[in-house]
DNA sequence: AGCGGACGTTGACTTTTGTCAATGCTCGTG
DNA sequence: CACGAGCATTGACAAAAGTCAACGTCCGCT
């Protein structure tokens, strides 16, 4: 990456200020510029990721509930947003927390798969810029012109931009009109290659979708409202990377799924670190399905959902009281 | 790790201030404490690693020289400290840069091997505290009561402390009086286990030592001054983790090496990311030997040394002029 | 119970940082 | 070549953050 000389001075100012601990006026003197410029450069340094300020997310891991969830469901790490007294609405805090955790989980050279949805976009939005090197962000599902929200490819690209990374979009729609066409397309070398590339990711970021009249797959037009009832009868329980799963987390055997171009579930599960982020308390059911399908290793949810998960798994959510006590 | 309630408020203040972007007085109001306390907590948050401020090290990777070195010697990443006009003495900047790079390279759950030396200790000293989880720091060589400087085990422990990590020290001296004793000790299960654990590290940090009257191994008493001449005749070129290597980077066949308890070279090379840091321009020779022995994948040196390495490898250090131009 | 020390907290003051309108500079265009 | 748009830079002022002595509180000890 060619270095614009203008950026050089920003790096120098940031290094002197943040690493050497000089004051702005000292930095100004050292670099022969005004202090106002130093202040300006430092702001730019923070905004562009030349300087990265990360805050510990321990706050959201500190109660017993999180540890119990990790233990009971065999997860790597669980973060819970409860009533820490930080903000009125826990759900609103989730993308911010997820962005912090996500940025921390991605390192130089990583290949990162992202699925899309409202939550994922909110995370992208809350992410700080970071000066990673050699990161690749790959889309985990086909594309879709979402009329009311952000498109999957925009989502991928936005995240890539924040990591100074290369963004790889799928050259295919998420869902096609016929099974045959989807099959043909999947066999196309370009598409094949993209699908195969998902399994070699180092980490993944996604959410799980619901299946209701106002859920994402419906609203963005991937799925017809009329198909919904029949799918539910077949046992549809949630949506992962644009594909419908049953209550056990298996790919539902249905016409819709056969017309979809998206990541293979085994490929997803082959990714070592998979961060699942769920904002809404209403997604409890789909989340349980996703757990059974072993789709993720790291989880961020509200403590309400955390407690319910344990309850419904026949576990006493002991420590829930501790959570409440935090406030 | 049990959470002292006092720390909780520090985390909360840091989260609100750094992640939500509130002002100190707003944080104070939200947490029902005085603004002065908020300022205090925030400082503590920074000092203890609850908040981590990392500055990009791009500044030290920007010239062609670094890229040429990576290419010619097959290294992963090279950072060069030249005359960026930041500080008078490039060598003094190296531990600071190395500390930044090192902290960035270690992630949760990593097992990190550290060798010791003046440089490694200087790095430990310059490191910020970070709130890593599940990190283990293992000593890569036996111990030694260094009269004039820090001991290997102190070095390991200090680094562990900064990562909130577990530190594993070697339960053996670096060098013994007889070959037999060293052999027996190496075969002891406790020691065997520690030696074996080195190969399973995720990353390593070390420097290379010289062999002169005033070099580290001599000064700390590991090696007798009287032995030096004979070792040089045998082809001794440098020191890696307390062991002597020849110009080709191979373990020198000598009495001293047979009496040493330290990491096996193949185990070191089995570690995927190995950061070599060299402060002194005088270590050019030992460094070349270390390169030939493929001891490291990442390198931090002065640009003077960088240029010389290329020259002596028969490469024109083009771009050196570019380096100078930076100032 | 009384005492003393250590440590956490705060208000008031100082220093440092953020901001913004005004100015200067560069470069493409008529 | 002159002009002006757009952007970088700066000085001066306002806002925010840092500091510290004084005070309060808790806890162990006599």
UniProtKB/TrEMBL annotation, chains A, B:
<dbReference type="InterPro" id="IPR036388">
    <property type="entry name" value="WH-like_DNA-bd_sf"/>
</dbReference>
<dbReference type="InterPro" id="IPR037171">
    <property type="entry name" value="NagB/RpiA_transferase-like"/>
</dbReference>
<dbReference type="Pfam" id="PF08281">
    <property type="entry name" value="Sigma70_r4_2"/>
</dbReference>
<keyword id="KW-0805">Transcription regulation</keyword>
<keyword id="KW-0238">DNA-binding</keyword>
<dbReference type="InterPro" id="IPR001387">
    <property type="entry name" value="Cro/C1-type_HTH"/>
</dbReference>
<feature type="domain" description="Sugar-binding">
    <location>
        <begin position="62"/>
        <end position="310"/>
    </location>
</feature>
<dbReference type="Pfam" id="PF04198">
    <property type="entry name" value="Sugar-bind"/>
</dbReference>
<feature type="domain" description="RNA polymerase sigma factor 70 region 4 type 2">
    <location>
        <begin position="16"/>
        <end position="47"/>
    </location>
</feature>
<protein>
    <submittedName>
        <fullName>Sugar-binding transcriptional regulator</fullName>
    </submittedName>
</protein>
<dbReference type="InterPro" id="IPR013249">
    <property type="entry name" value="RNA_pol_sigma70_r4_t2"/>
</dbReference>
<dbReference type="InterPro" id="IPR051054">
    <property type="entry name" value="SorC_transcr_regulators"/>
</dbReference>
<comment type="similarity">
    <text>Belongs to the SorC transcriptional regulatory family.</text>
</comment>
<dbReference type="InterPro" id="IPR007324">
    <property type="entry name" value="Sugar-bd_dom_put"/>
</dbReference>
<keyword id="KW-0804">Transcription</keyword>
């Amino acid at each position: 990456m060619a270095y614009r000389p203008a950026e050089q001075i920003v790096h120098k100012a940031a290094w002197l200020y943040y690493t050497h601990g000089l004051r702005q006026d000292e930095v100004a003197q050292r670099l022969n510029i005004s202090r106002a410029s130093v202040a300006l450069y430092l702001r730019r340094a923070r905004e562009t990721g030349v300087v990265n300020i990360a805050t510990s997310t321990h706050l959201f891991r500190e109660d017993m509930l999180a540890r119990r969830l990790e233990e009971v469901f065999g997860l790597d790490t669980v973060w819970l947003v409860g009533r820490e007294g930080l903000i009125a609405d826990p759900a609103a805090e989730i993308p911010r927390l997820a962005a912090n955790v996500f940025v921390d989980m991605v390192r130089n050279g990583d290949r990162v798969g992202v699925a899309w949805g409202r939550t994922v976009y909110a995370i992208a939005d809350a992410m700080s810029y970071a000066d990673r090197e050699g990161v690749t962000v790959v889309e985990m599902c086909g594309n879709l012109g979402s009329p009311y929200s952000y498109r999957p490819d925009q989502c991928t690209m936005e995240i890539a931009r924040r990591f100074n990374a290369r963004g790889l979009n799928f050259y295919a729609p998420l869902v096609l009109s016929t099974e045959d066409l989807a099959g043909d397309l999947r066999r196309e070398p370009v598409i094949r290659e993209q699908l195969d590339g998902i399994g070699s990711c180092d980490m993944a970021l996604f959410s799980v979708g619901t299946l209701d009249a106002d859920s994402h797959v419906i609203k963005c037009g991937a799925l017809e409202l009329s198909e919904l009832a029949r799918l539910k009868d077949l046992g549809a329980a949630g949506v992962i990377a644009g594909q419908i799963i049953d209550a056990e987390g298996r790919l539902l055997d249905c016409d819709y799924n056969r017309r979809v171009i998206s990541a293979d579930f085994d490929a997803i599960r082959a990714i070592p670190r998979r961060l699942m982020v769920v904002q809404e308390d209403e997604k409890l059911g789909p989340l349980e399905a996703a757990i059974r399908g072993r789709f993720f290793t790291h989880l961020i949810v509200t403590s309400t959902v955390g407690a319910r998960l344990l309850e419904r798994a026949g576990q006493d959510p002991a420590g829930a009281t501790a959570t409440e006590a935090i406030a």
